[in-house]
Amino acid sequence: MAMHFLLLLFTMSVVVVASDEEPFIGVNVGTFLSDMPHPTQVVALLKAQKIQHVRLYDADQAMLIALAKTGIQVSVSIPNEELLAIGQSNSTAANWVSRNVVAHYPATNIISICVGSEVLTSMPNAAKVLVNALKYIHSALVAANLDRKIKVSTPLSSSIILDSFPPSQAFFNRSLNPVLIPILDFLQSTDSYFMLNIYPYYDYVQSNGAISLEYALFKPLPPNKEAVDSNTLLHYSNVFDAVVDAAYFAMSFINYTNIPIVVTETGWPSKGDSNEPDATLDNANTYNSNLIKHVLNTTGTPKYPGIATSTYIYELYNEDMKQGPLSEKNWGLFDENGVPIYILHLTGSGAVLANDTTNQTYCIAKDGADPKMLQAGIDWACGAGKVDCSPMLQGQPCYEPDNVIAHANYAFDTYYHQMGKSPESCDFNEMATISTSDPSQGSCVFPGGLGNNGTFSNITGASLNSTNSYSSACNLYIFDLRGLVMVIGLLIWGMVLL
After folding, report:
1. Which residues are identified as catalytic?
2. Which intervals hold domain X8 (predicted)?
C-alpha cells in the first residue's frame, strides 16, 4: 500500500485538548530561498504530503489564493515590521484584516493570526503596542463576525521563562509583566491559546553539558536517567515536555490556569558549521520523527498526560538566504525542489518515506501521444514549469535517445517530482500518465530512479520497491489555472499549436 510522508500523521484524529480542538502537526513555510517555489508548487507539495496545517510568516496574497479550496488550515502572520503601524491605529488593523483575512475567508481556511513573532524579546520598542495590536485585530474580526472562527495570539520565545527546571518552579521574566499580563488577559478573554516557540537544539547547545543529547532528541531514557521535578516528583524524558510544562506552571504562578499552549516553532537543523557538530541529518530526523509521534500519540506532558500540544515544525524548506551560521539555513524538511532532506522514521511497521519512494512512481508520455503535443509539453515544462532541462542538451546524460518521447519522459517526470508527485501535475493536455516503471536509461537517471547502473538519484531512502501500479488522467489545467504559471503555459501551448 502506497504511503506518503505523514499520510496519516498530519490528519489522524486523536483526543480533544483543552481548547476543544484536535491536536495536530503543522509546518512553517519560510520564504528566504534564492529560488522560492511558486505558491502553486508549495501547495502541491503540501497536498501531496497530506499536510493539513501551515503557518505563514506573512499574509502573501498569492500564497493565500493558492491555498484556497484546499482545506488546509492556515495561520497567517503580521510581520514585526508592520506591528507598530497596526498597534497605533485601529483603522490600519481593520484594513489589514479586510485585505488579508476577509478577502480570502472562507475559501482559504484561515484559523489563526500570529501578531508579530517573539516581540517581547526581539523588539522591546514594539512590545508597548503589542497588546493594542492584538485587541485591534480582534476587534476587526468581531466586526466581520469572524472572532469565533479565527484565533488571535502572538508567538513568544521560551526564553521569557526563567528557571525552567524544575518546571514547577518556573516563572516568567518579571520585567515583562506589564505587557505579558495584559496579553494573558486577552488570550483568556478571547478563548485563544498561548503561542510558544521551543528549540531544544539551542537549549542543548547552550547547556554546557547539563542537558544530554538523548534528552533533547526525545530518545527513550531509563527511569534513572529521566529528570525529576523534586516538587511534584514528575519524571521528564525530554526537553520539549519540560518547557511546555514550565510555561503552564509559569502561567499558573500568576493565576492563569485555562489557556492552552500551541507550539508555533520547533525543530532541529540537519547541517551545521564545524563548531555545530550536533546539527546532523540523523539528529534532525530523530528529533522531528519523535516529535511527531509524541504529539500525535497523545502522550501529553507529565503535568497534563493525555493532552497533546499542537505543534508546527520549523520548517518546510531549507532557507539558503538566512543569515548566520550554516545551521540557520538547514532546518527544512525539503529542498526548494520538494526533495526530502531526510526520511522521517514514523512507524514501527516499515519506513514511511517523505516522497512516497516505497511505491516509486513516474510521469511519462502516453503510448501513441502526438509528437507535436509532446514537444509543446516539453517547451512548457522547460520554461514556465521551471524544469532544469540541461541534462537533455547534446553531450549531456539525457540527450540520448534523441527523440521527443524520451525527452518528454524526462521533462514530464522532473516536473512531476518538483510538484511533490501530485497526480494533477502529470497531465500535459492528457499526453502524460503515471507509471511505476522506471524510465531511466544508462547514465540518465530520473528523479527518484535507480537507473540501469543501480545508483540512486535525489533519494535519501534505502528502499525503492514498487508493488502497485496505477494510471491517472488528471487535469493539469484545472490545477494550474489558479496561478500565473499555467497562464504562461497556456500561451506557449497555443503558440506551438497554431
Report:
1. 118, 265
2. 361-446
CA distances from 428 to 42, 217, 242, 385 (A): 19, 44, 51, 11
Residue (of 391, 413, 418, 412) closest to 402 by Cα position: 391
What are the backbone angles phi and psi of residue 471, rounded to the nearest 5°?
-130, 140
Sign of dihedral through CA atoms 453, 458, 463, 465? Answer: negative
- Size of the chain in residues: 498
In the chain, the amino acid numbered 174 is R
Gyration radius (Cα) of the chain, Å = 24
Strands 194-197 and 156-157, sheet pairing: parallel
- 130: which 3 cell numbers? 503589542
Q: How far apart are CA 461 and CA 358, in angstroms?
A: 9
Cell numbers at residue 412, please? 514530464
Over residues 412-459, the pLDDT tens digits come to 999 988 887 877 888 899 898 887 677 887 788 887 654 433 222 222
Q: In terms of Cα–Cα distance, which of 309, 417, 389 is closest to 44?
A: 417
Q: What are phi and psi of 384, to 5 degrees?
A: -60, -30
Q: For residue 434, which phi and psi values (nearest 5 degrees)? A: -90, 135
Q: Give the pairing type, strands 25-29 and 311-313.
A: parallel
The HSE-up count of residue 199 (CA atoms within 13 Å, CB side) is: 19
What pairs with residue 194 in β-bridges? 261
Give the residue ranges of DSSP H helices in 190-280. Answer: 200-205, 213-216, 239-253
Q: Kindly list the structural domains of the chain, giving each domain's residue range(s) and its CATH number in brackets, ordered by start.
A: 25-334 (3.20.20.80), 362-435 (no CATH)
> Within 13 A of 389's CA, how many CA atoms are on the CB side?
22
**Residues with Cβ within 8 Å of residue 435, at least 6 apart in sequence:** 361, 362, 363, 364, 469, 471
| Cβ atoms of 446 and 410 closer than 8 Å | yes
CA gap 246, 233 in Å, rounded:
14
Q: Grid coordinates representing 352?
A: 514511511
| Residue 196: its H or E element | strand 194-197
CA-nearest of 21, 23, 42 to 332 is 42
Please state, in angstroms and rounded to a whole number, the distance separating the CA atoms of residues 98 and 282: 44
